[in-house]
Amino acid sequence: ETGVTQSPTHLIKTRGQQVTLRCSSQSGHNTVSWYQQALGQGPQFIFQYYREEENGRGNFPPRFSGLQFPNYSSELNVNALELDDSALYLCASSTDRREQYFGPGTRLTVT
Amino acid sequence: AQTVTQSQPEMSVQEAETVTLSCTYDTSENNYYLFWYKQPPSRQMILVIRQEAYKQQNATENRFSVNFQKAAKSFSLKISDSQLGDTAMYFCAFMGAPTGANSKLTFGKGITLSVRP
Fold first, then answer.
1. Which residues contact B71 (CB under 8 A, 6 or more apart)?
2. Cβ within 8 Å, pair A43-B45
C-alpha cells in the first residue's frame, strides 16, 4: 500500500510569486486535507477536499486555493506569496473524512 | 469552535521509564475523535493512537495508551518503556464526527519529548 506523498520536498520562492504544491493520497482514500505548520507550532487547517469538492476551509485568505483530481490527488496553490507564508505544508488523506494520514510535507521558504 | 490545549511545552524521560503527556480540549459536540500524533525531526506526522468519544474503554497500541476522561475533557497519552526513538514532538488533535461539515483536525501546540539514554 502506497502512503501519502508530496512534492516538492523543499521550495524557495520570492515574495509576490505563485507556488503549486502537490499531494498524492494513499490508495483507497477519497479525502485530502491541507495544513500549514509554522516552526514550533501545531498544524493549522487550510481546507479539505472530499470527492473533488471543497469540503470546508480554515481561516486562510482566497489566495490559498486548491483542487482535487478524479484520482483523488490534490494541489495547493498560493498566489502573491508573502514572507509569512514560509512554513511546512502538510497534506493528509483519509477515507470518507475519517482518520487522517500525513505525507512528509513540503518546506516552503519565501524570501 | 473546538480548542485543544497542551500546556507542557517540553518533557524529558529516562529510557525504559514511563511518561505521561497531558491534553485538554473544549467542545460542545458529543460525538468526536481524539488523536495523538508524533512528529520526529524528520517532520513526518505519524498517527500514534486514536480514541472515539463514544467508547468508554481507553485505547491502547503496544506501549502507548490513553486516559480519556470525557466529562473532564481530558485526553492524556502514556508511553511505557520509553525508547530513544520516541524522541519527537507530540501533538494532541481533535476531530468532530465525519458527517456533514468538514472533518478537520484541530491541533494543540505540541510538546517536545526527549528520551535520555
1. none
2. yes
